[in-house]
């Protein structure tokens, strides 16, 4: 069965492609890219005015499956991903039970194959039960297809344990992804320490609680040689540390979320909006500006959502008791298009680099390019589609977006995974 | 004089005029509190729920007396019988209470922001009786009342607030309120008990040297050391705290002749306040503060539950 | 005097008020057989001023200065929830009313609700032997079984009108005026344009 995508603007910075052309897809692969292509039989889609990019990848999501399916599951989470324009995601291991052995990896893979609407890359835990004490079954998980490891949700508190994790992981072609949080400084921190914590009368989550662990993990990267990926970086000084490590030639990468770029601690008012309670917390305007600059200049490698769904009732409560996290899959691309691409801060090439190319590299996945022979994982974007973020529009089970009400321009309309449409004209294909 | 607030949650939403209206109304309630029948029928038929989700004796009794003296029907809700202990969410608890057709919720909670949440869910008037480490507006108002009675006005007053600023909901309301009234505010605390940004609360000066600050102050507001609330001790021991930050008898000579001493209570004698100062007949206005608590709470209930400002029928 | 209402007529001028107060003072003394055990309590914000005038007049006639108090009834009103006034004036009765004959003084007697509230307020303060009521103007339209013992002048009025007393001491002029009420506005005393001299 052949598929022809006609007349779209094709952008792929990996091969210096940016022109209006046609793509012919057969058996899940791109067979030809060119002008005025024809085929004998198959489905033809006219994508005039649209942009086609290599399929977007969100390398940091929580699908809550197994164990907390009331918040999200692989079926709903992967639909949210497709709806947001993603062809693949990387799920974090802090499920119940934790993905710290091969059985759990196989469960997630099997569910994704059965009910998923995007590719699911499974991240395994670094330590058993995310406790930071005993190594997880890293080798077995790796053999069963978990290419990367993280104790996301916690920092590994003990430096010696982190060293052991990195030393051990270094025998595989993998990366340790680090959630940087020093619990002895962060404790019960709720919001950024400074103006927000003082104004709201809550325990502060200091920038140094993150920066100290970034510095430590970079030092351990130097010591062990194990590749390190800093997750959801939020501060200017943290970014400086990563920039210095890169300049030194260390195998260090990092990621940023839209909410840390486009929201600040000032957004949390006396209304105590629990949707804005995230970990790490929303930081200062200066930090947000530095993150955007870091994304533009390449210090930041990837844009991720840290999609963290929660039920309405879990969020509709006391701020200090509400869980951390906000959803992101269905707003990420549009936020980036609106605030960065349309605003002229970055171009499409840089966006694709951060949302498709770099995540695949870091996750040790085959690259996807808009050229013959590549797997046909493609995202189609309508750059002019104006829309307002509304709860009723989400495919995710959860509504805890920090951007409800935002007016955005540009969104994905069609998504192809292995040549099959997972979304067409804004609707998930069932 | 317009007073159009429905809630008393965040003191920074109140203007100097609003605060003076409360203080002047509080003053008129003195007459009621000083006669044999200490009760007026003003809030007859109104139901006020005292929702104390955290233990409190003083604030709750003060509110209860204020409500009773205004003839409101009050319901005490909280303590070990609290629904939240049984796993009910705050939102459900508030909706349940509202089904009783109530008029006002006075709320004390461990967690910051809860009064606003209750206001959003319930639709009735909400008075914050202390939320987490955030605010305690009626405490600030009773402090202002006591200072106003003692000093006659807020003009050119320099107030020093001493002690645990970072864990203090009293400060969260008091310091902004003092600034609204035009006072100069110095915060005096060990660095381990300062919030990240005291200037955000309104502090004009921040110091850790009590002896240097005292001679400048017209009002010395000593905070209670909240021993029960510390994650890791922020000072070596109580003796050293008293040595560095206690208002001791020796420090009396550093004070201006007419400086007065406030404390929100309950006092840790020998820690933040020596008995000499706590009971000082000229300086201590601590018991006046307790009395002022009833007056300003009566005033707040009267003003918040009242309707529009209109003429008076003959 | 009043921006919201139109003055229709002046039914008492300063001289009329002076004469009425003099007559009321005489009547009070006559009814009580002198000034013994007598005290006057005026209802703020005009009744207290009227009471002060009556006390002066009684002193002129009898040579006795009877005790004078003022009563604020804000906390006793029956329409609190709809018409609360945030401006509360202090009640100040610097003597025990127990066993005394109290003459309550108000400017205009209308529905009777103010007097009902004043009686409740008085009873919470003490136990007078008797309470009498003196008003400068009775304009009718009673809603409660209340009647004045001493009346300066009966002024028949319509409920679409407002009858207001202005006094030299606070308003710069003394007069009783009848004003039209705009639809939706309520009858009521004039606001004090000056702070009471305290």
Please give a quick description of this structure.
The complex is a heterotrimer of chains A (430), B (314) and C (198). Chain A has 430 residues and is of the alpha/beta class. Chain A has 13 helices and 19 strands.
What features would you describe in this structure?
- The complex is a heterotrimer of chains A (430), B (314) and C (198).
- Helix content of chain A is 30%, strand content 24%.
- Chain A has 430 residues and is an alpha/beta fold.
- Chain A folds into two domains: 2-52 and 373-384 and 403-428, Urease, subunit C, domain 1, CATH 2.30.40; 55-362, TIM Barrel.
- In chain A, strands 1, 2, 3, 4, 5, 16, 17, 18 and 19 form a nine-stranded mixed β-sheet that branches. In chain A, strands 6-7-8-9-10-13-14-15 form an eight-stranded parallel β-sheet. Chain A has a two-stranded parallel ribbon with strand order 11-12.
- In chain A, α4 packs across α7 (207-224) and α7 runs parallel beside α8 (236-248).
- The longest helix of chain A has 18 residues, at 207-224.
- Chain A is globular.
- The relative contact order of chain B is 0.15.
- With 198 residues, chain C is of the alpha/beta class.
- Chains in contact: A-B, B-C.
- At the B-C interface, α1 and α11 of B face α3, β4 and α4 of C.
- Chain C: One of its GO terms (biological process) is regulation of DNA-templated transcription.
- Chain C: One of its GO terms (molecular function) is uracil phosphoribosyltransferase activity.
- Chain C: This is Bifunctional protein PyrR.
Into which percentage range does the β-strand content of chain A fall? 15-25%
CATH superfamily of the largest domain in chain B: Aspartate/ornithine carbamoyltransferase
Question: What class do helices, strands and sheet pairing of chain A give?
Answer: alpha/beta
Gyration radius of chain A (Cα, Å) is 21 Å
* Separation of the first and last Cα atoms of chain B: 20 Å
Net shape of chain B: globular
pLDDT < 50 stretches of chain B? 308-314
Query: Based on DSSP secondary structure assignment, what is the total number of beta strands of chain B?
Result: 9
Kindly report the oligomeric state of this protein: heterotrimer
Which residues of chain A form runs of ≥5 with pLDDT under 50?
none
How large is the count of helical segments of chain B? 11
End-to-end span of chain A in angstroms? Answer: 18 Å
Number of separate structural domains of chain B: 2
CATH topology of the largest domain in chain B: Rossmann fold
Order of helices and strands of chain B: HEHEHEHEHEHEHEHEHEHH
Query: How helical, in percent, are the residues of chain A?
Result: 25-40%
Per DSSP, the total helix count of chain A is 13
Largest beta-sheet details of chain B: 5 strands, parallel
Largest interface: B-C, 32 and 40 residues
Keywords (chain C): Glycosyltransferase, Transcription, Transcription regulation, Transferase
EC number (chain C): 2.4.2.9
Protein name (chain C): Bifunctional protein PyrR
Domain Phosphoribosyltransferase (chain C): 16-151
């Amino acid at each position: 069965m052949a598929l022809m995508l006609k007349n779209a603007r094709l952008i792929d910075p990996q091969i210096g492609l940016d022109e209006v052309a046609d793509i012919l897809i057969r058996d899940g692969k791109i067979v030809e890219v060119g002008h005025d292509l024809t085929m004998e039989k198959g489905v033809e889609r006219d994508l005039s005015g649209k942009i086609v990019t290599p399929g977007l990848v969100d390398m940091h999501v929580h699908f809550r499956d197994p164990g907390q399916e009331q918040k999200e599951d692989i079926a709903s989470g992967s639909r949210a991903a497709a709806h947001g324009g993603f062809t693949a995601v990387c799920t974090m291991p802090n499920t119940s039970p934790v993905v710290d052995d091969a059985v759990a990896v196989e469960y997630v893979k099997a569910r994704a194959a059965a009910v998923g609407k995007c590719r699911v890359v499974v991240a395994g835990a670094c330590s058993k039960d995310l406790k930071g004490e005993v190594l997880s079954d890293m080798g077995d998980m790796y053999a069963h297809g978990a290419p990367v490891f993280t104790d996301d949700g916690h920092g590994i508190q003990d430096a010696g344990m982190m060293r052991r994790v990195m030393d051990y992981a270094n025998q595989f072609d993998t990366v340790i992804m680090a959630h940087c949080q020093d619990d002895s400084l962060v404790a019960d921190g709720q919001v950024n320490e400074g103006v927000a914590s003082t104004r709201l009368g809550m325990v502060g989550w200091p920038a140094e609680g993150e920066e100290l662990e970034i510095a430590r993990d970079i030092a351990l990267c130097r010591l062990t040689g194990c590749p390190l990926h800093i997750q959801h970086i939020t501060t200017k000084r943290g970014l400086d540390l990563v920039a210095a490590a890169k300049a030194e030639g260390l195998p260090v990468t990092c990621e940023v979320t839209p909410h840390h770029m486009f929201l600040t601690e000032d957004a949390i008012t006396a209304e105590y909006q629990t949707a804005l309670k995230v970990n790490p917390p929303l930081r200062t305007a200066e930090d947000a500006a530095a993150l955007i600059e870091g994304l533009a200049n390449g210090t930041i490698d990837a844009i991720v959502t840290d999609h963290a769904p929660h039920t309405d009732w879990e969020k509709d409560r006391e701020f200090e008791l509400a869980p951390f996290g906000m959803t992101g899959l269905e707003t990420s691309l549009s936020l980036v298009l609106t605030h960065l691409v349309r605003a002229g801060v970055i171009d499409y090439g840089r966006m694709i680099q951060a949302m498709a190319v770099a995540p695949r590299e870091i996750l040790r996945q085959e690259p996807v390019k808009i050229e013959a022979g590549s797997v046909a994982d493609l995202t189609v974007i309508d750059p002019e589609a104006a829309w307002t973020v509304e709860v009723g529009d989400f495919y995710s089970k959860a509504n805890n977006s920090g951007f409800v009400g935002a007016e955005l321009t540009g969104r994905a309309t069609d998504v192809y995974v292995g040549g099959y449409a997972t979304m067409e004209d804004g609707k998930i294909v069932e | 004089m317009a007073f159009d607030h429905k809630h008393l949650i965040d003191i920074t939403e109140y203007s100097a005029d609003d605060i003076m209206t409360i203080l002047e109304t509080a003053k008129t309630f003195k007459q009621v509190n000083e006669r044999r029948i200490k009760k007026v029928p003003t809030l007859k038929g109104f139901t006020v729920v005292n929702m104390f989700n955290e233990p409190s004796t003083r604030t709750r009794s003060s509110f209860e007396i204020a409500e009773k003296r205004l003839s409101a029907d009050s319901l005490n809700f909280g303590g070990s019988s609290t629904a939240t202990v049984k796993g009910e969410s705050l939102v459900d608890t508030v909706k349940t209470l509202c089904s009783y057709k109530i008029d006002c919720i006075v709320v004390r909670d461990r967690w910051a922001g809860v009064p606003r949440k209750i206001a959003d869910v319930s639709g009735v008037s909400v008075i914050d009786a202390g939320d987490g480490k955030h605010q305690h507006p009626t405490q600030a108002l009773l402090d202002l009342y006591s200072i106003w009675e003692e000093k006659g006005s807020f003009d050119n007053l320099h107030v020093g607030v001493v002690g645990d600023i970072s864990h203090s909901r009293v400060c969260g309301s008091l310091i902004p309120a003092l600034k609204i009234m035009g006072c100069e505010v110095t915060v005096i605390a060990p660095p381990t008990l300062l919030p990240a940004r005291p200037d955000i609360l309104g502090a004009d000066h921040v110091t850790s040297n009590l002896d240097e600050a005292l001679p400048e102050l017209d009002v010395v507001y000593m905070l209670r050391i909240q021993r029960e609330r510390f994650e890791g001790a922020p000072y070596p021991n109580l003796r050293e705290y008293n040595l560095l930050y206690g208002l001791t008898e020796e420090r009396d000579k550093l004070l201006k002749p007419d400086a007065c001493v406030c404390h929100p209570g309950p006092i840790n004698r020998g820690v933040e306040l020596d008995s000499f100062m706590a009971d000082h007949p000229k300086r201590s206005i601590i018991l006046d503060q307790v009395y002022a608590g009833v007056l300003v709470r009566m005033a707040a209930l009267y003003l918040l539950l009242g309707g529009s400002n209109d003429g008076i029928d003959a | 005097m009043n921006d919201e209402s139109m003055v229709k007529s002046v039914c008492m001028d300063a001289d009329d008020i002076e004469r009425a107060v003099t007559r009321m003072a005489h009547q009070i003394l006559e009814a009580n057989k002198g000034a013994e055990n007598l005290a006057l309590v005026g209802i703020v914000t005009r009744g207290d001023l009227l009471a002060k005038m009556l006390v002066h007049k009684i002193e002129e006639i009898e040579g006795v200065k009877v005790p004078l108090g003022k009563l604020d009834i804000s906390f006793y009103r029956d329409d609190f929830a709809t018409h609360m006034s945030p401006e509360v004036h202090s009640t100040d009765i610097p003597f025990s009313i127990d066993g005394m004959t109290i003459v309550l003084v108000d400017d205009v007697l209308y529905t009777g609700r103010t007097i009902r509230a004043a009686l409740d307020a008085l009873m919470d303060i003490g136990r007078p032997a008797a309470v009498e009521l003196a008003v400068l103007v009775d304009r009718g339209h009673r809603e409660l079984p209340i009647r004045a013992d001493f009346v300066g002048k009966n002024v028949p009025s319509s409920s679409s009108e407002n009858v207001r007393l202005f006094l030299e001491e606070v308003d710069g002029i003394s007069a009783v005026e009848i004003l039209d009420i705009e639809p939706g506005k309520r009858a009521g005393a004039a606001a004090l344009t000056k702070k009471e001299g305290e």
